[in-house]
Amino acid sequence: MIPSPNGNRFVGPAAKRNPFTDGMLKNYVKSAWRSVKRQKLASFINLLGLIVSVTSCVLIMVYVQHELSYDSYHLKADRIFQLTTQLTVDGKENHTAWAPNFIGQQLKADYPEVEEVIRLQANPGNVSFKLSAQPTPKAPRVLSLDQVYTVYDSAFLTAFTYPLLTGDPKTALVRPGSIVITEEVARRFFGNDWNQGKGIIGQLLQSGGNSYQITGVLRDIPSNTDMPFQVLIAQEANKLEQQAWCSSYVLFKQAASGSDFSQKLAQVAQPIQADFAKRGGHIAFVLENLRDIHLGESKLFDTPKANQSYLLIFSLVAGFLLLIASINYINLSLAQSVGRSREVGVRKAMGAARFQVLLQFLGESLLLTGIAIMLSLLLVTLLLPVYNQITEMHFTLSSLLTWPMGGLLGAIFVIVGVLAGSYPAFYLASFQPVTALKGKLGAGSKSARAQISQLLVVLQFTISITIIIGTLAVYKQLHYLQQKPLGFQGGQVLVLTIPQEAVNTGAIASLQKALSGLAYVRSVALIGSHSLPSQEMNLSAFNLERDGKMLPLPQRSIDVDENYLTVLGIPLLAGRNFVDARVSNDKDGEVVHEVLVNEALVSKMGWKVEAAISKDITQGPLGAETWRGRVVGVVKNFHFQSPQQPIEPMVLQNNAWQGPEKVLVRLSTGALRDQLDLVETQWKRILPDHAFEVTFLDATFAQQYRQEQRLVTIFTYFSLLTIVVACLGLFGLSSFATAQRTKEIGVRKVMGAGSYSLIYLLSRQFLVLVGLSILVASPLAWFTVQRWLQDFAYHISIGPGEFILAGSIAFLIASLTTSYHAIRLARTNPVRALRYE
Questions:
Q1: DSSP class of residue 416?
Q2: What values do phi and psi take at 182, rounded to 5?
Q3: Helix segments in 430-560, DSSP class H
Q4: Cα–Cα nearest to 344, from 364, 324, 371
Q5: DSSP element (H, E) containing 535
Q6: What are φ and ψ of residue 834, in 5° steps?
Q7: Is residue 689 within 8 Å of 141, Cβ to Cβ?
Q8: pLDDT per position as a tens digit, 676-695
Q9: How many CA atoms lie within 13 A of 66 on its CB side?
Q10: Phi and psi dihedrals of 520, rounded to 5?
Q11: Which helix (H) or strand (E) is 440 found in, with range?
Q12: CA-CA distance, 679 to 696, in Å (whole number)?
């Protein structure tokens, strides 16, 4: 051992220095920071591109993560499965979110692996609640709520682990007549201090002549749920008829039992299937895990579902933005390689190993990525309110403080930092010291570098142009759907929701008569459940005549009255309209109900329009029918639902008066505010205990396009950002390219070259790459858009216009980007240019 110079320590031959000790790591960081500061233009472009890309990626993935997390917060989510029904009749499959009550009962009774079966029904329309005694003068007299669920199994709050702020989840729904409300409803009734003093438990709410006792208050239901209820009402299980359809959830003792239960479900369906087979149909029951419901297929009578295609597209856009920003870093690093070759040569001449040079350049990349992530998080925080308006969500800072988002940011830091820095780092670290000090990299090296850079530019703009074309196609398709004639007149039509407790009173008939007597009101109609255009239509078991025989053929149906066609302006093709349904036609001692059918049903049954009049439509077993109807008219096809779907055959029944759910009021044009005031006055006079809530039919129908409208808005912003980030890189590349040709331009100007020819010379190489990107992107975008349009029953045709416009946008922005440096250099004094370098 050899004494050290200070005499205190000994250093042996085996004591090797660790490159990450003795301040080495600190020196790497310092050196990286100095390099970032020295290369101001390249660093600014890279940093700005990364900030834009990371911010966009975080915002997109917050939305995607929200859609992927529906109902996954329940502790037993892996063991809860929804029971749904697949019905196939006349070759058409209908998948409904409901199941017959007796099936759920049978599962719980006969299969020990089933722990609980939860049955519930969402109440149609609005339900009004009134406090028995007002706690404060400011408390509302009556509250109208549209998300009221009736629960037939008390285990609901132990299976679904919604947090109760007050009350016991085991007993809150045990006694029929108990009611559990959300915190938001509690605040509206009792104020913000609802949980102070005497408390809320035991308070009575009245609705429809019944009293309900509050037994619990739930924390407000998160937005990522398919059961957005405001109120849960406990009801006796035997009040639900055996054949009634309801939402059913099966809680298994083990998660694996639910996944392997398909064969047993088939056995459960066998007795029913035998009856369906006689009618030429098929029935099957399906279990779907709670966490997969929101991402599954859309079903009849279901809540809105996520579109997996849109989520995939959003995720790809986020990835493409990060890729484009990474390509910017690679291209700008390669463009600076000549200028930084001497730096590499000096480092290697001073003894730096290749891996040390490699770490230096990777460190610069990771440093920039880390700074970009921190600044992006700040920017995301500032943009969240605007983003919430665009997406119609309620994201908060807590949405960012989750493990998935933390993992995403960590992955961005590592993957983007390494991806963006690896190739330039390996490329620069490979220089030979002598060659690098001379600044001569070799023709082959320059050629390979240029080819890679050009390829990456083409890739950038191919992605950007493809996204722009897709955005234009989505916008055009949405505009087409919004402007397509629907077959009815939805403008100037008010929609009033009837309180359930007023249905069986004479108040609705009085309201209809009073509204019809107003000078501004042209017509008033009543409609039943699932009978408002834009809603899911009823699916009814009818027997219809085809080929001279009566066949059981379930059809879509709506419950209306004799004013329905007048209010909506739907024309008749043959026959006549209804007469008053309360005057039934009695023929040979048999009551025959009048029905209308649409063109689609006439075509499906093989009837002629005129010959369809007087056709029989019945319900009940063949030979023992319980209901008989007769076609009195054929209406022209109209879109009951969004034109995204084909027009379905349907039967219009004149029985809305038996259980009306909504009132449709056609107003005159002009003086809208005055007309609304008159309608509200009559409502408050006849239904004083119920809130006056009104919507317009055209606005309600347009809500079906909200998903596409959000898609267009989000796509527009992010497609523009992709081209902006790509052009940032092009701006930097053109800057370095023109700088390297400064002396050449000086010589050309001395030889008489004009400014326009020089601008063309400097911009040509980049604009050719953009043109090549347009050629590559066009067939790729066409194929993608065509696949997307196949999901629409009615859609646009993609013509050359979208491709020309997208290409023109990209070409124009690229031209402006590259021409800035070209114009600046072309106007430079040739003497000054010749002195360059």
A1: I
A2: -85, 165
A3: 433-438, 443-483, 507-516
A4: 364
A5: none
A6: -70, -25
A7: yes
A8: 999 999 999 998 878 888 89
A9: 20
A10: -80, -20
A11: none
A12: 13
* pLDDT, tens digit, 9 for 90 and up, residues 621-641: 777 888 899 999 999 999 998
Q: What is the pLDDT of residues 434-491, one digit of tens each?
A: 565 555 554 444 566 678 888 888 999 999 999 999 989 988 998 898 889 999 999 8
Q: Quote the CA–CA distance of 352 and 343 in Å, as a whole number.
A: 11
What is the DSSP code (8-state) at residue 398? G
* Pairing state between β 204-207 and 493-497: unpaired
Beta strands in 538-645 (DSSP E): 538-540, 543-546, 549-552, 555-559, 572-575, 585-587, 590-598, 616-619, 627-635
Please list, in sequence order, all residues whose beta carbon lies within 8 angstroms of the beta carbon of residue 411, skipping any fewer than 6 positions away.
Answer: none
* Spatial separation of the C-alpha atoms in residues 534 and 431, rounded to whole Å: 67
Residues 6+ apart with CB under 8 A from 429: 344, 354, 355, 357, 358, 361
Q: Which of 138, 563, 49, 753 is nearest to 332 (CA)?
A: 49
From CA 108, how far away is CA 115, in angstroms rounded? 7
Between CA 68 and CA 572 the distance in angstroms is: 46
- How long is the chain? 837
Q: Return the exposure string of 70-98: e unless at least 16 CB atoms fall within 10 Å of the residue's CB, then b.
A: bbeebebbbbbbbbbbebebbeeeebbbb
Backbone angles phi, psi at 72, to 5 degrees: -85, -5
Measured in whole angstroms, how far is the alpha carbon of residue 707 from the centre of its chain?
6
Give the CB-side neighbour count of residue 362, counting CA atoms within 13 A. 16
Residues facing 248 on adjacent strands: 83, 119
Residue 15, classified by CB atoms within 10 Å of its CB into exposed (0-12), middle (13-18) or buried (19+), is exposed
Q: How far apart are CA 183 and CA 192, in angstroms?
A: 9
Rounded Cα distance, 512 and 681, in Å: 13
Each residue of 401-421: pLDDT tens digit? 888 889 999 999 988 888 777
Q: What is the DSSP letter of 7?
A: S
Separation between Cα atoms, residue 772 and residue 465, nearest integer Å: 11
CB half-sphere exposure, 426, CA atoms < 13 A: 7
How many CB atoms neighbour CB 810 within 10 A? 24
Give dist(CA 654, CA 511) in Å, integer. 19
Give tens-digit pLDDT for 222-257: 989 999 999 999 999 989 998 899 999 999 999 888
Rounded mean pLDDT, 560-581: 92
Distances, alpha carbon 617 to alpha carbons 52, 63, 597, 659, 729, in Å: 62, 48, 10, 21, 69
DSSP string, 462-500: HHHHHHHHHHHHHHHHHHHHHHS--SS--TTEEEEEPPG
794: tokens are 């009615």
DSSP reduced 3-state for 587:
strand
Whole-Å CA distances, 554 to 301, 539, 557: 16, 7, 9
CB 164 within 8 A of CB 181: no
Q: How many CA atoms lie within 13 A of 229 on its CB side?
A: 22
Backbone conformation region of residue 797, classed left if phi is above 0, alpha if psi is from -120 to 50, else beta: beta
CA distance 334 to 450: 8
3-state secondary structure of 287: strand
The whole-angstrom separation of Cα 629 and Cα 595 is: 6
For residues 427 and 431, give the distance between their C-alpha atoms in angstroms, rounded to a whole number.
Answer: 7
**Cα gap 136→568, rounded to integer Å:** 44
Coil vs helix vs strand at 395? coil
DSSP symbols for 756-815: HHHHHHHHHHHHHHHHHHHHHHHHHHHHHHHHHHTT-SS-----HHHHHHHHHHHHHHHH
Tokens describing residue 589: 């001692």
Q: Give residue 83's Cα distance to chain centre.
A: 24
Q: How far apart are CA 255 and CA 257, in angstroms?
A: 5
Give the Cα separation of 288 and 83 in Å (integer).
7
